Batch of 3 targets.
Target 1
Amino acid sequence: MLKALKFRQVSRTRPLKSVADQVFDRSVGVLLIIIFLIVFIPLWYVLMISFTPLGYKDGSTLFLPPWNWSFEAYTQLLGEATFMQATLNSLFITLLGLTINMVLTVLTAYPLAYKKLPARRIIMTFVLFTYLFNAGLIPTYLLVKNLGLINNYLAVILPGAISVYNLFIMKAFFQNLPESLEEAARIDGANDFQVLWHIIIPLSKPILLTIGMFYGVTHWNEFFLPLLYFNDKVMMPLPVILREILSSSGMSEYVESNAASAVSQESLKMAAVILAMLPMLVVYPWIQSHFTKGVLLGGVKE
Amino acid sequence: MSILRQSSPVENPLTDELRANSISLNKNRFGKAFWRYRYLYLMLLPGMIYFLVFRYGPLYFAQIAFKDFKPLAGVEGSPFVGFKYFQDFFNSYYFTQILTNTLIISLAKLLFGIPPAIILALALYETAYKRLGKVVQTVTYLPHFLSWVVMFGVLLALLSPGDGLVNNVISAGGGERVAFLTTPQVFQAVLVSSDIWKEMGWSAILYLAALIAIDPTLFEAAAVDGASRLRRIWHISLPSLTSVIVLVTLLRLGAILDAGFNQIFVTYSLPVYSVSDVIDTWVYRQGIINFQLSLATAVGLFKGVIGLLLIVVANRVAHRITGSGLY
């Protein structure tokens, strides 16, 4: 009896699998490992090239032994004023842009989540239309130019201050929050701003992180708009400088790689690539667990 | 305000709501509803100003598509030319070229992008090794967040004729090294496959969610009936994915004229313009570089209008077939 009971417990945690099932499991495992390698190897190769010392006997390789790793390329890039300036520019654009994005998106999403709000449908249509129709690049460019924003960091921030997609995700999230808490606060005499700040925001951490990451990534990765709106090279963010470094012709302009340099050009390029994605790698695992929810909310219509 | 209050009938939340929802010309009532939600409207104000200025503002400048725009004369002062620039565009030799490129690249990304995402989702759903699944998920989502400039660096590392990993493999296998990024015959394939590499994990999320939503008793019942795991995937998992597949496909078709501006803009170069110049890149070069503002605006507007029609139709169809849509 006791034995039977024990057996049942065991079988519940680890059901016996048929041979076919085991083969299937293994195959799925192998498939996952292959997919993993397809995504991982290119990134790993970039990392290894960035570590490869000048004149390494095997050239670039996937299996550079750790005792041969050289961090010269990184030291040289980080010592380069142009590179550091571009990094600071990117940080500035990202932080200012993110702040504006989040404040505007939250302030707009919250009232729109309030189903009883008069004229809500009209406002939603007003917003939705801009999502479906885009007048194109040139009219927006002329607008920004006429607003006097050329060579102004606001030119790359304000035109995209609210992403309609992110706005709708956030609105959907707000709509799913229980109304009872809000009602209780209102009965206690809180106004809408107080409800938003003290009740809604603390409950919305997952979606705020997800949307914040979406916006932050967009700013950090911004490449085209700075080229379009800035004439001054000192203003350019990291992706623009990275692109110049990657096209070898622009290399000497940004990184002094003279004959005496202890680093190969390839290592410098790939070190710049790694440095440009580094902030992403740092923030990403921390926020990753919230993504799925955010993405799925985006796919759900009202 | 006190007058408004006095003139309104008995305070009653129910009638209050009815009032708020009904379109009433009664100014007192409207004023009262407005006052009641004044903080919410105040919150909306900055956002509405944003949409008005930066999303509707460009529409004013879009009229230069119908004018012979001279920056010195201004939008109002430039002479009206009607559909001249649209006709110029339709009659030009590049019309067919950039439209073909746009459609080929877009459709190829859509068509070849869906199977890997589904396979990844199925593998993540079926795997018995949960920790491996988590690792694969983390790694495959990551490229979605990398910029196309970073991706260009990765592509250089892989494809450069000198020391690219892919070329090293090709030459180790006895083949000729290929300058992938500057050879017209292979460049479209580079665009499509790098896009799939970058977005595979991210696109799998939707399919994975659909799989997780399947009632597990279906699988159990099938297992009792002796269906193998593969048969269960074929007869339960895949059919459950059809509505998501249809939805994703339709919405992507609605945005078919967006072939991926950022990717192409960062990656392409003169030797491969012929196969990679799409509407957006062409508009940029004609408008900003060659200063053909009216022509570029006309083409952008053409794209915008077609895009609007496509997405509205796609959304309708999606609602009809799957019961949900983009909006």
Target 2
Amino acid sequence: MSQAPPRRYITIFFNGEAYSVPHGLTIMKALEYAGFRFTRGSGCRGGFCGACPVVYRLPGDYKIRVGLACQTPVEDGMYISLIPYVPLVEYVPRREELKPDAGYVLKLYPEISRCVSCNACSKACPQGLSPMDAIQAILRGDLRKAAELTFDCIACGLCSLRCPAEIRHPAVFRLVGRIVGVYYMPRSRSVEQRVKEIESGRFNNAFAKLVSMDPGSLRKIYDEYLKTGRLPGDLEV
Amino acid sequence: MKTLLYYPGCSLKRDYQEAERAGIAVLEALGYRVVELRDWYCCGGYPGSTSLDHVKYVSSIRTLSKGIQQKKETGGDTIVTLCPFCYNTLKQAEKLYSMKPDIYRRVVEYLKDEVEPYRGGLRVAHFVEVLYESRSDLSKLARRRLSGLKVAVYYGCMLLRPKAVALDNPDRPVLVESILRELGAEPVDYPLKSYCCGSFHSILEPSIVARNTGKIARAIVDSGASIVVTPCPLCLSNLRKYTDLRAMHLSELIAQALGVLELPPQALQG
């Protein structure tokens, strides 16, 4: 009779306590195995939402390592600390206030001029981005480069925690992304067209009908739509 | 064709792109291939002026380490910059091993996760040095000689101090004047060529800049010059903001003389 290979257990340390957990789990799953329940600092569990930054060290190694709890496998002897939330005071300007100008970004986030290019941010980025290059690009006035370099930022905030200049990278990058979106990216004609259609009232009747329906009828229409690709006549627009 | 690795620096890239265009056009007219460094970072001039000594070398050493890679690809062994602050910081970083070996070791140790330690192999040069070395060609290439133009050269601090990286005598520099004479200009002599303009005090203590540039401006006016040129974007900014002098970056005047870049017509009128 064949037997499953014996499960290998390893020891991790969390909040100063040792826990024995199966080898091969992510930090998040290992902590849940150990009995913790995540009510904060957990989101998509797929490495995309940036809610679960984690800081850890490995035995015999001086390096502070960082990652996402849902993506990083546990290792024997790992010392773990979760960062459920990184405080980033962010100013979100209205669209009309945005200016395509590095001076404007510096005015809102003056600390970026303190970048000494130590590159601690890039070493911390679980997305493998280079926040330092983006900050440096802003300092030389190249907002488009900065936006391009940080498009994949998930705003976990680990770079900010490691930054000796206390730069609020995710907030800065969000601002730069918006500026570049408003001033440099091509406008989407189809969206403008659809907004006009909505404003002209084209969807008002169908929408009012949908809202007034009970869930059972909605479900019926939906199933029918999946099968045939059609809506009942009075909902067509 | 000799290749120059070009280090732009933040000031030129952000605020003085016309000086940058002029400088590159001049270097190309002199027969150089100008290749911008693929990876370059703030030279350290900004944080370095106010902060810990070893921190300011981190970005410069990183730039040099990455420059070595590009030297292998392009054959260019000289990093040239139009900004004296960048020149000064990069040059000191280039000489760090001999000037401050303990700081060199610490910086290299810090950077070893990212780049190979910089062990020499690049020359750091300011635009002025390249011009000086090619000054005989300048005379041949000039299409619009600056005949009789009374020009004051304002050097500022960073090309002349400290001694280890100085390009000329800090009290009586003549380097740029000899370049301009090749183009027919008549550089004037005046006493405050390397008197500090006030530099970064423009941010926190503008009164210092107003006072210093005021002194410099009086000396230049007394000398009879009709225009002042400087190799430094920060000096240029301070002179333009606090005085009525007609000031331009050195690269722009040279580009005008070589006819390689059109400047607005009022640029050279008295």
Target 3
Amino acid sequence: MMGMRTLRRFCRDGLFIVFVVLMSAGLTGCSWLSSLAPILSSIGSLTGMVGSIVSIFSPEAGQKISSVGNTISSAGQQAAQTGEQTSGQQTSQSPTGTVPTGTSAPTNTEDGTTTTGTTGGSTSSSSSSSSTAGTTSAPAVSPSGSAAANAQSMVSSGFINRGSKAFDGRLNITQYGGPSDRTPDKYTKMGLGNRNNKLRPTSLALSPDLIRKYGLKGGESIYIKTSQGTRFLGHYDDTTGNKNEPNVIDIYDKTDSLGNDNFLATIPKGQWELVIGR
Amino acid sequence: MTNHIRLFHIFRNAFQNPMMRLTRLGLMVLLLGLSVGVYAETTGEPVPTKILPASVAEPGSLDQVKAPVGDLTMFCWFQPPEASRFGVADKDGGIVWEKVAGFRPMLDYFWSKDGSKIFYVTDCIQKEAELRAGSDKTRSWFFVLDAMSGKTLAEGDLDTDILDLPKQLPDAVGASHFIEVAFENDVINVTIEHQGKKVSGSKALKDLLEKK
């Protein structure tokens, strides 16, 4: 009897909570949903970590827990997107992290046909890039925001799209440095980049081919240019290190705010350029 | 009862204690292990050569480049969370020598035409790396390595010591570049491309050796 009563009370309370959520969603236009995103993402990451630990003892159970974590993280991202869309705030037009189309900045064109060729082989080797590079100048709007937030905003506004990793000339944007990073190297754990520099919220690791192609020295602002405009993503502070994976930008995401090491957005071959600021 | 007999009784009683028995047993096992170790070291087979894996699971990577002459292959093996290792393997994949190349370094490596030397370029300045730049002002620190032993024959800053970029293309000093290398008759010819501009430089190994 007691058990039934408790169960009934739980159901009643649960229904009440669902009702309140639906009511506030209707009244406020879901804009508050975006505030749920970090909470859900954190829960997702935590679940993912538990999954990783459990998978040591029971791979199947661990995998299931990890997939639940992924789902929660995705729900978080969905909530963020829904929140942004319904609140009417077009983050793509926000003054931070965006550069108006047609700015005079730039320059180094990227057609995605780069050959990695920089690692050698024979006595005279290495086909060099055919890119035409010009001078680099900083775009008009000063960059800001975290790289993860900028990427999230790009996804939600359709500037970049979710996709799968491939090395066919597309730009691959991934994340690293969070609790679920599968390549937790010592230096990233210490928060250091490739020049013993401190990693920051806007830090990016670029693949060696991109670093060489644009003649980067370290710390430059990285903008992505598509037909929709030119937008700031972050700063070049680290290297992905794997020469077999060209055209990769890895976003430093210390808290896994982009998900459980599974964030992956792409821009098809020929539809992107990088713009380098000082 | 004299003192030493009393002491003996104390020890005997102590060793009859179950905890002390366990300690005694542990000591015996340790001694046995040490004996076996010493025996194996003196009479056993030599430790087998470390072999390169056929492939490395993602997100690790294994890059191998065969020498133009001979059976050697140079490799760069990255298996997170360990640092990258660069070295040379024989025709069976047995590692002849290897050196720590650092975490996430940008590397270029080229064989000399006769396969006796390696021209290796790195941007790594991490102190754990054996092959690390001697200056943090460059993205292109080079080593000339003996292929058989891995011994460093010469090293320096590619930008200043071979290309003389401060004179040829000051903007490119300290930046990352696409590199082409021709290493023949102990003369190193390097061409870089920096933002569409090509710059070349050449240096004889003996000149670099003198500098060293």
